[in-house]
Amino acid sequence: MQTTGNLGLKKPEGTDIVDIADLNGNMDILDNAVNGKVDKVTGKQLSTNDYTTPEKTKLAGIATGANNYTHPNHTGDITSTGDGVTAIAAGVIVNADINAAAGIDASKIGTGAVSNAEFGYLDGVTSVIQTQLNAKASTALATSSTAGLLPPADKAKLDGVIKPWGDNTASMRAAGELSRSAATERQNISANTLTKILWSNKTADQKGVCDLMNSRFLVPETGIYIVSARFGFRVATSSSIQNAVGFFAINGGLNSQLADGIIRAGQTLITIAGSYQFSLDAGMTVEIFVLSPSAGSITNEDTYTHASIVRIA
I need a surface site. Which of 58, 94, 148, 289 has the fewest CB within 10 A? Predict the structure, then answer.
C-alpha cells in the first residue's frame, strides 16, 4: 500500500484489501490539517515574513495619524534644538515689528515687576518724574526749627481753640438756651424760700449743654462760659418796698447774684436779670435760683423768663 508524500494518507493498490479503518484514518488526518489553515482571500496572499509580538506592541504604541518626523534644528535669529524650546535671539524684534494693537502685558516688559495698573499711572506724565517729585513739598512733620506738615497733635489742639467773636466756630461751641412754655402753669414761689427756677423748653442745644429734665445747664467740656438769665416775678400788690434776688448756683451751691429786683408799692411785676463769666470744668452744673420776701410766681413769657449759656474760650 502506498502513502501520500505530505500527509501520509494511505493509498490502497488494486490488489490491496480496502480497510475501513484506513479510510477513517485518512479522513481524520485531512480534518486536522484543514483546521490548522486560514481561508484564502481573493486578491491577497501570505507574506514571506512572520508578524512578531514585539512588532505588534510597537504598532499599538503609535498614536493615530502619527508620522515619523524629526524636527530640524534652527540657528540665527530664531533658534531651536530638535523638538525643544524655540527662542528668539536678543535684539531681533524692533519697535516696527510690534503692532499697536498687540496689547502686550506690562509684566512682559523689563523685569516684569511693573503691573498694567502701575504702568497706567504714567499716562499724563509730561516731564521727568523725579524732577516733579523733587519740586513737591516734604511730607516731614514740622518742628520748632524746621518747616513741614502740621503734626496731628498740634492739629487737635487747633481744633479745640475757640475764637471769641466774629468767627465761624458757632457750631463747635457748647451753647444752649432754656425757657418756659406759655402753656405751662406759672411756677409759684413761696416767701423767703430759696427756689430753683424750672424750665420746660430748650433751644439751640449744642453738645448736650441743656439738661432740661433737671432744669439746669450741664457743662460738656472745660472752658470759660458766659451765663445769662432773666425772669419775670409777679407778686400781689405791695404796700412797701421789697427786694427779690436771683442767683447763679454752680454744682448746687450759690455762686453769684444776678441782680436785685425792687418791688415798689403798687407794683405787681418786676424783671430780674444778669449775666456772669464762669471758668467751668466738664461735668459741672449751672442753675438759676430766686429768693423773695413776698410770695409770687415766675412768668412764662420768654420776653421775661429766659436763660442761656455759651462757651467763649
Answer: 94
**Taking Cα atoms as reference points, which of 310, 311, 309, 308 lies closest to residue 179?**
308
CA gap 260, 46 in Å, rounded: 144
For residue 255, give the C-alpha cell.
455762686
Question: What is the tally of structural domains in the chain?
Answer: 1
198 belongs to a structural domain = yes
**Cβ-contact 186, 299 below 8 angstroms:** yes
Element (H, E) at 298: strand 296-298
- Please work out, in degrees rounded to the nearest 5, the angle formed at the alpha carbon of residue 258 by the alpha carbons of 233 and 191: 40
Domain membership of residue 136 (yes or no) is no
Contact 181, 200 (CB under 8 A): yes
Strand partners, 257: 247
User: pTM here?
Assistant: 0.49
Residue 182 exposed, middle or buried by CB count within 10 Å (0-12, 13-18, 19+): exposed
Say how far apart CA 256 and CA 119 lie, in whole Å.
Answer: 72
At 220, which CATH number?
2.60.120.40
**Residue 243 falls inside a structural domain:** yes
* Distance between CA atoms of residues 257 and 276, nearest Å: 9
Q: What does the pLDDT look like over 234-285, one tens digit per residue? A: 887 665 657 789 999 999 999 988 877 776 666 678 889 999 999 999 999 9
In Å, the largest CA–CA distance within the chain is 192
Instruction: Give CA–CA dist 224/277, Å, rounded.
Output: 7
Domain interval for residue 201? 170-311
Distance (Å, whole) CA 272 – CA 290: 9
Q: Can you point out the beta strands (E) in 138-284?
A: 175-179, 187-189, 195-196, 201-206, 210-211, 216-218, 223-235, 242-250, 253-263, 269-280
Residue-wise pLDDT tens digits, 79-124:
877 666 788 877 777 777 777 777 778 787 778 788 888 877 777 7
End-to-end CA distance of the chain: give it in Å, rounded.
151
